Amino acid sequence: MAAPVSMGELLRSEQLEDPLYKDEGLCVLGIFGKSALQPSSGKESLINTLADKHVFPLFGPEGDADIPGGGSLIRAYYNQESRVLYLVLTTVCDNRQLLRACEALGSGLGHAEAHDFWKAAEKQRCLHLLYLFSLCHILLLVHPTCSFDVTYDRLFRALDALRQKALPLLRAAIKDCPVSKEWKLNCRPCPPRLLFVFQMNGALKVSGGAGAGAAAGGDAPGGNPEKPKKHSPRRRLQHTLEDQIYRIFRKSRVLTNQSINCLFTVPANQAFVYVVPGPEEDPVGALLGQLRGHCTLRDSEPGAVLTGPRRYTQLRQSARQPSFTVEGSSLAGAGGQLVDCTLKEFLWQHVELVLAKKGFDDSVGRNPQPSHFELPTYSKWAQVAGRLHQVMLDSQDEGSAELALKVQGQLKVLEGFLDSDAKFSESRCQKALPLAHSAYQSNLPHNYTTTVHKNQLAQALRVYSQHARGVAFQRYALQLHDDCYKFWSNGHQLCEERSLTDQHCVHKFHLLPKTGEKPEMDRNPPILYHNSRGRSTSSCNCGRKQVPREDPFDIKAANYDFYQMLEEKCCGKLERIHFPVFQPSTPDPDPEPEGEEAAGPPEAPAEGSGDGEQLKEEEATGHTPGDSTSLSLALSLGQSADSLGPYGDGAEGQEKRPSLAERQPSTVEYLLGMLHSGCPEGLLPRFSSWSLVKLGPAKAYSCHSGLDQPGFLPGSTFLLPWDIVIRCRPEEEMGLAEPLDAAPSSWPAPNKALAGKRAPTAGLGRGRRGRDDVARAFVGFEYEDGRGRRFISSGPDKVVKVLGPGGPKESATRALNSDMPLYFHSPTQGRGLKPHYAQLARLFIVVPDAPLEIVLAPQVQPGPPPCPIFHPEQREVLLPPDGFWVLRFPYAYATERGPCYPPKDSQQLPSFRVLRGALRANTTSPPPQ
């Protein structure tokens, strides 16, 4: 073979042997180990020395570029003249392959992934080594330093365990090969002999020639200069390494008395360690010495050219005697010191035993058992090598794919031997898991929510990270996550549904009953209705009856079903104004709800907010009656924020959209949840969350006794008076209907201007209004807390409290001109630290029997922006004269995306509000007398 090839190419190609050597046996020599950092110091350079040829290039074989990152490759060189087949294993232990593996690894992998990468490369290295140990007679371990690496002891024990596991599979692979029964039984031609080659790394710079002479003639400290030592320093180092290696392998049971049972053997009476001397300091002298040696060898060769077996014997003998003559002649007078042999002489004494078919008798003890030995021809060896290559290294052959998978499965045996850091990490992480489980389960209720589960899991992971270490950290952390989730979901998971008052359901995970289905506790999961165990006291639509109620989880149950239940008992026969709801055009009991594509744009909540701000600015700046009418019309027409401007500025000249009254609502789609400013136009809900009922005529309310309803706090049952000026002059003089609160001068001072009397004149404006009449209405914003305590509020921060007769002194002006809070601090707080809030429940309006119009247009913002503005299905309701009306606000507010929960602290209270402008009065001129 002229050049080295890979093992696969060698087995696939047909080796053309010289007929002279066809029937001769061959010695298979495997070389593995590590390479030094210096160039030309790799394992391949040893073959150049042994073959006296430039077989491998100086800077490594070119075929290394074909090896994948982190992979392994066996390269073969067959020297037919010396009948030696060299197999060189290149792995990640070689510097060139180590650099390629680091490049292939990249920088994006984590610690655990990088560890798996290196361990996969290590397992492939072990599989290639087992392949060499199954085919070679002699193995050469090359190490770049002159000290033994004790990690080889663990490696060889792992290889021995892997071989014992894979031995039945290897026997099945070579059962048809033309080799002896012993070879088929043991899957190797003989127990291979392992030799060690160490390279001098500067610790002992002694060469085989000049160094030995210097050591022989030099004076040793404290020694006798006249008596030189028998062995050179390099030979003494070799003997020391042999003793050290033998003791280590015997103690770890890698070497035993019976060599047939061992992974490899070492000779008992021959040297098996060789230290390669360092490079010569004088390169020119080294080259001259090599030239002299070659010339001396040529002079000793016979002149006649021999053929046949004599020529083969002569070549083998010349191969064993390359430079010993030169060394012996140069060191003959060195005071009797033994001459250091060359690497070729050191190796050929073992190769000669193989080629002479003597084999290795390396068993020791009293009753040594002879080991089998076979010297195959190249063709027989190639057949066995090919079958083992298919099973162990190349699984592309369909016939051996099953065996190859089984051999790969046996690589798990290596984990306990090679992956000691992972084994430590496994042990450490397994000890940390119970501690983490205890941390998770500490102070846990029987059923708990996702938030509690996540908090406890974070605590468990903190405890785990304090104790767990190594590459198994991530894997066991995922196991901890799965274990905690299984514990939580196995009967400890609390229902995640929250009520409309932001309270969790107390039941464990359950299903809701279907229509007509009864609750079942014994089912898994059980079938139950939601229950937060929260109860409150609430009043009916008109407020004259109070009953307890369960904490609602559904907007229909909160705003409709509860009040419908009380209709038969209290206010079912009262006169009312019905708000429009969805009316299907077909008898289909379940029309299509509003789809997500029908939802309004994200800017829709800002539109409702703009409406409320528009009302504020209109009242603050005091527009004319015509302006107020146009603004109300614009709001009722549903103009967008873009057409009205941020606060209604620049609304003139904009094209108005058709109003809801002109546009017929949909009879196919209905609105999920409640109606608010972000809903698409033309859709109505299936039920109304608002209620407007009439308790009777205006005289049904007595301003001296107040409301006669249960639950009110003492002195807080009185409605606030609202004096409305009725214009008596013609329209061309006063203009169109003017809202009463257009200017502060429209309001008479308390106890100064009564109905039917003239107000004192003060300037031209007041003189004009001296001929107007004043009608008195009554307004009351009623709040109700969870315990059924009710009270009337006269402003954003004041509760009505009348101690004597005559009713409240303050008017309703402040309440009507301000944003009233949706939630109010309950005056009956109690001793608890948790604040109790009363919610705006009703708006009482007493409309007098007078020529005026009171328009009801409530707007509620139940949360901070961008919370939408909620309003009834009819934005503006005209209340007829002479009536005592009650507007019941929704108990809860929800959009199609979810409920708007009550505030959790006092800082959020200003964001929950009822926008000003809920009531306004339009006066009308009386008929002419």
From TrEMBL:
Transmembrane parts of this sequence: none
GO biological process, one term: nuclear-transcribed mRNA catabolic process, nonsense-mediated decay
Signal found in the keyword field: no
One Pfam family from the record: Smg8_Smg9
Role summary: Involved in nonsense-mediated decay (NMD) of mRNAs containing premature stop codons.
Family under the similarity heading: Belongs to the SMG8 family.
Protein name: Nonsense-mediated mRNA decay factor SMG8
UniProt source species: Lepisosteus oculatus
